[in-house]
């Protein structure tokens, strides 16, 4: 009589693999879809609410100033050339508001991608020396070349930001750059260039007077020509940052994991640094260095969206202008008939708010 074959038993490792890698059941897949759709709908609704808030703040930015405009007069001031408010709105308030929208979006998105790239929650647009490069170039142009107008300073600042960012990338290791080396290279460049700017301002009193207003960070000198000059650079930087959002999500898991997912870490870092250079160089050129916007807004937004950059970046592009324009409006209200520059207001408000986030435990690894 033939004995029946012994039953086949799987080892523990084989059983573990089969359990770990078994595909989800149809019920699990169906139940996951409503959760995902609900999360997406919630984020989309939040983004729509943020856009509505931005529209309200933009209207306030046009209405509030040394000469307050009733809200009912804002629309005629925008569209009716015969209205008494048309000149005030188009020559002063509208350029200032547009520049605040552009600069805020640039700083917020630049801060978010810098924190993701360096995996450093304290990273901001000045980490790679971009603001320092723009400041040093403007100081050099003002003291040695005699550049006085914002139209000339914009180009000096863009060139300085690009040159210093390229230098920081090379010093940080080039294609083999790591987040730690990039941060250390940026810190060294920052210290050196800001010392250089301080030396120029102390040795040349004429340059000190011309640079004093610019180095504070302000929207008060906005002109439509300046807005038109920096808008293409900021638009290109925003599009590039949004384009690398998905691969940058993979890079946040580590270089080896990113390569396994098909991403190219060196190419991603180069794209992010290019985007940050365009964004911060243009914003700093037009407004001067403005602190805390690029550092604070990504942390506030991350509490709403999570770490997914595909949602984090659009939220930052909307809510960072809300913060910047809101601070600008507050500075005009607090010091009437004069005004506090927006860079001072963001510094005063940003410090305590960031400390509050730290104490609440909301500042962590991006």
From TrEMBL:
A GO MF annotation of the entry reads:
transmembrane transporter activity
User: Where is the protein situated, by its record's location annotation?
Assistant: Cell membrane
UniProt organism field: Salinispora tropica (strain ATCC BAA-916 / DSM 44818 / JCM 13857 / NBRC 105044 / CNB-440)
Main subcellular localisation: membrane
Assigned keywords, A-Z: Cell membrane, Membrane, Transmembrane, Transmembrane helix, Transport
Membrane: present as a keyword of the record? Answer: yes
Report the record's Gene Ontology biological process terms. Answer: siderophore-iron import into cell
Statement: the UniProt record of this protein carries the keyword Transport: yes
Recorded protein name is Transport system permease protein
- InterPro entries the UniProt entry points to: ABC_BtuC-like, ABC_transptr_permease_BtuC
The entry's cellular-component GO terms read: plasma membrane
Q: Which Pfam families match?
A: FecCD
Membrane topology field: Multi-pass membrane protein
Its family remark reads: Belongs to the binding-protein-dependent transport system permease family. FecCD subfamily.
Membrane spanning stretches: 46-66, 98-117, 129-148, 154-171, 183-203, 223-245, 266-292, 312-330, 342-359
């Amino acid at each position: 009589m033939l004995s029946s074959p012994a039953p086949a038993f799987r080892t523990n490792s084989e059983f573990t693999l089969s359990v770990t890698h078994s595909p989800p059941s149809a019920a699990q897949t169906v139940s996951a879809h409503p959760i995902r759709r609900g999360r997406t709908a919630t984020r989309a609704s939040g983004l729509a609410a943020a856009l509505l808030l931005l529209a309200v703040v933009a209207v306030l930015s046009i209405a509030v100033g040394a000469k307050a405009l009733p809200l009912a007069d804002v629309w005629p001031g925008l569209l009716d050339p015969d209205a008494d408010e048309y000149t005030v709105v188009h020559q002063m308030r509208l350029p200032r508001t547009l520049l605040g929208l552009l600069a805020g979006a640039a700083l917020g998105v630049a801060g978010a991608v810098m924190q993701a790239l360096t995996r450093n929650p304290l990273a901001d647009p000045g980490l790679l020396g971009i603001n320092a490069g723009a400041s040093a170039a403007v100081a050099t142009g003002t003291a040695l070349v005699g550049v006085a107008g914002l139209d000339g300073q914009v180009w000096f600042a863009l060139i300085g930001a690009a040159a210093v960012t390229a230098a920081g990338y090379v010093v940080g290791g080039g294609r083999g750059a790591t987040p730690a080396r990039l941060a250390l290279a940026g810190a060294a460049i920052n210290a050196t260039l800001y010392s250089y700017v301080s030396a120029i301002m102390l040795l040349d009193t004429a340059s000190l007077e011309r640079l004093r207003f610019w180095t504070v960070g302000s929207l008060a000198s906005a002109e439509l020509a300046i807005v038109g000059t920096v808008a293409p650079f900021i638009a290109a930087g925003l599009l590039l940052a949004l384009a690398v959002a998905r691969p940058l999500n993979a890079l946040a898991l580590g270089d080896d994991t990113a390569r396994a997912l098909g991403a190219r870490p060196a190419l991603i870092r180069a794209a992010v640094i290019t985007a940050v250079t365009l964004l911060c160089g243009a914003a700093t050129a037009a407004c001067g260095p403005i602190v805390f916007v690029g550092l604070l807004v990504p942390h506030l937004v991350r509490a709403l969206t999570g770490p997914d950059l595909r949602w984090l970046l659009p939220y930052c592009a909307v809510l960072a202008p809300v913060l910047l324009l809101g601070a600008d409006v507050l500075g005009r209200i607090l010091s009437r008939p004069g005004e506090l520059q927006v860079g001072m207001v963001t510094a005063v408000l940003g410090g305590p708010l960031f400390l509050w986030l730290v104490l609440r435990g909301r500042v962590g690894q991006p």
